Amino acid sequence: MNTFRTIKRTITAVLAVAIVALFAGALAAAEWPTFRANNRRTGSLAEPSAATSPIHGTVAWQRSIGDSIQSSPAVDGGRIYFGSNDGTFYALDEQDGSVIWTFDTGNWITSSPAVADGVVIFGCYDTRVYALDAATGKLKWQHTTHNMVASSPAIANGYVYFGSVDGNVYCVDIRNGWQKWSYKAGREVYGSPTVSGGVVYIGNHDGKMMALDAATGNLKWRAIVGGPVVTAPAVSDGYVYFGSWDGKLYCAEIKNEAVVWEYDSGGSIESSPLVANGRVFFGNILGYMNALDAKTGNAVWRTPTGQAVVSAPSMRGGQLFFGNNANNVYGLDAASGRIQWTIPTRGMVTTSPAVGANAVYVTGLDATVTALR
User: Fold this and answer.
1) Tell me, what CATH number does 64's domain have?
2) Which of 138, 142, 240, 283 is the most buried (most CB within 10 A)?
3) pLDDT for 277-330, tens place per residue?
4) Distance in angstroms (rounded) separating the CA atoms of residues 196 and 169
5) Does any domain span residue 1?
6) What are 75-107's pLDDT values in tens digits?
7) Domain extent at residue 92
8) Number of domains in the chain
9) Cα–Cα distances in Å, from 307 out to 37, 273, 283, 300, 349?
């Protein structure tokens, strides 16, 4: 009988450890270490576990800093990383918003950071890209361009990719910042690169969406549209989706290197697209959040918000999260476009929310970071 109890206790203990490991894995998988969640910039977190409840729009905590925030946050290792117009880069505790460390650059930081291999990397208006130790905030290296860097970097295969207002796209080594290659795009590059299948996709101010070989920087192909491309493209199922100031959302087939459909939203698009569940979601300056069929470009629904939507939507499960220029943050049902809740802020929200395992983190021009549950 005692032997039976011992075996029972052992099995119970093993099951408990397995359950803890399972949930720890779910939390780790829920991290958002770069702009739009991943290098394909799809903006979507995988379906949360059954134990994770929906986001109801309840404010869990807020943290105010020195100046407005145009840098979309990244979430990794229990920390939230972002830059500010006060020239400071921040690392906050994900649970309560307390400041863990800061790093001063002395100039605006609108670039969203990317975190990998214990390093956090971001661009700055002082023309530099910085790499900091993610644990301590200590400088590891910096790479200088010829103009400001608003582009959010992508990290892939040991290299960092980003654009600059100097009109170049850069590839540098993540270990030391040494340049591997640069590509002369011709006009300013404000948008963020997307890396998928050994190709870097990035737009410029001349209305070009370029596909560059990630290893060499050589141009593979490009699409030319009617206005500047300042958003990050999204890559999904063999297609590249991107918006333009000409008001159109474009879909290019990678295999054939050609645009296969376009959708005219009626207003300039500065909101990076989100691709999930066979649909493409994006905002425009007319204040609409749009949902299109990813294969055909046909409209599924349009939800008005009353003011420009520059914020790129993020998804968790079946919910969309984004802000607008009327000082609101929204939670929408992705299937129907129905507004589930609205949270007022004290300033415009132009950034893209970051999604954690059990919360959504929003930065805004009111110099505040907000955790919503």
Assistant:
1) 2.130.10.10
2) 283
3) 999 999 999 999 999 999 999 999 999 999 999 999 999 989 999 999 999 999
4) 16
5) no
6) 999 999 999 999 999 999 999 999 999 999 999
7) 31-372
8) 1
9) 25, 18, 10, 21, 11
